[in-house]
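User: Some background: our group keeps a shared notebook of sequences we're curious about, and every so often someone picks one and asks for a predicted structure to add to the entry. Today it's my turn. The entry only has the sequence so far, pasted here. Could you supply the structure so I can complete it?
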Amino acid sequence: MIISMHIPKTAGHTFNSFLEKIYKDKIYYHYNDVKCDDSSVEVIHGHFTANTYDIKGAKYITWVRHPVYRYLSIFGHYVDKFKYDYKYTVKSLYRFMDEMDFDNSMSAYFCGKKDKFDFIGVVDSYYSSMEKLSKALGIPLHRVESRNINLNKEYRRFVLDNINKVFDKVKKRNIIDFEMYEEIRRSNV
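Assistant: Of course. Here's the predicted structure to add to the notebook entry:
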């Protein structure tokens, strides 16, 4: 059994494509509040916290992403998908930061139980992390195309033009995520 905690905006859809190639119809998608109770399932994948499942013998895996780029990706997702009254401007990003509660949200998914995980991949070094995961679980490595990438040119231009302006402020507001990410990144080298 694999428990795959998909922290939002950490390549979960891309990773899901990998899981589907191996486990096909034996995956339970936990993207609601209904826990899996099907014993024939081999993988549980979705948005849930480390406290949600406690299954003896299961392999717990997840992915993390650089907190500043993850935060900007969340912002882009809200601008493009949810049509909130936000625009691709620094002022709008700062308003988003004040109005929405995403500060340190990546580390919050762990609920202080990072040691519960058998594998924590780093999105920023996705393929080398995938090689480690493949070896750790004894499963074949399949290359999959990246999915759910924001291709909006306005978003990409916003990030390129403003990353230096907003980096320190976003990092400061997400310092717990940043410190956790750096620790995980260093241990994945």
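Suggested note for the entry: The two ends are 26 Å apart (CA to CA). The longest helix spans residues 153-173.
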